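Researcher: Please predict.
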Amino acid sequence: MAMNLLNYVDRWVPSAVKELFKADLKLSDAQTSYPLTAFVIVYMIASPIFGSLEARWPRRYVVAAGVAFWSICTGAAALAHGFWTFLIARALVGVGEAAYATLSPSIISDFYPPSRRNRALTIFYVAIPVGAAIGFTVGGKLGEAYGWRTAFLAVGLPGILAALAVLFVREPTRGQFDPPAPALATSWPAALRALRKNRAYVLTVAGYTAVTFASGALADWYPAFLSRYRGFSTAEAASIVGTTAVIGGLGGTLLGGFGADWLRGKIRQPYLGMSALSMVPATLLAIAAFFVTSSAAIFTCLLAAQLCLWCYNGPINTMLVNSVAADQRTRAFSLSILMIHLFGDALSPSAVGILSDAIGLRTAILLVPVALVLCTVIWVYAWRSVAEEAAA
């Protein structure tokens, strides 16, 4: 959980100080988002590689090495003096983050039986909105007070402590709480064939990709939107996004996780149902956040949108875990990470940046609600059509 927290602190600091390093390094709107895209591309390519390493070394060693590497690369971005050095430093962060993001859900799943996994993973994924909030709030304040380089140094180095701590985590027995299943061939082609035929997995990942596209664009560009069109300073805009992320994200993650457990036995596919239904108000509130003008209305709409949006966080990852056999989980998460980033937040920040240079940020950022509508449609369809046995 500490690694997950630091991961998202690091990931969103660049968005909090975007206007500062844009001016310092003399970048265009599109260039400010290319480092995030480069990070995500490396992250998604490295994830399947780390998914293949789990059988060769203890998972905790792979995770520790990756986390230490990402921390060093985050600090290195503070030394950049041009577009390419900044881009390379941010891209290499993806190598380290892929190590923990691929293996951690598999490790956690091996500690708990299926009936308790949603709660455990909900607690683990609570770190995402909290980390994002810290990244925006602390990053924005440090950037405005001491410069954007200080912000990168401050959030990067603590990851080394987390890397040392994970070396002391006990390695659980793989699949100890799962019924015996036919062994999966070790090759990626065999894994891909099995996962492609898994309808619950495919639809879950498809919706996950759409919401990742939306959340990536929203997080990267909404602070800049507030600064340009609503008159907020860098610190004020980052603080609004950060505060709503921690309150709405924490509350939404817990509400979605525990709510989905409460719905078990009351509705079909409660994890998909909770995620699908929460996307409807999230989409409407996100649209409102782009059109209201007062500070109070902006804060209220964004907070409510975040609360509804984050309800999917625990249930969807639990759905990914429960929809595949124990010996497929690491590869399933590797492939999921690849897909949600390849077609999600690897594209969306740069897509908004390129459109912003061409037609203005006010119009370009409306890609966010379009993606949320697509996610809603996919998950509602999956909720109503996927057989119950798929999540057993």
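Model: Residues 37 and 346 are 4 Å apart (CA to CA).
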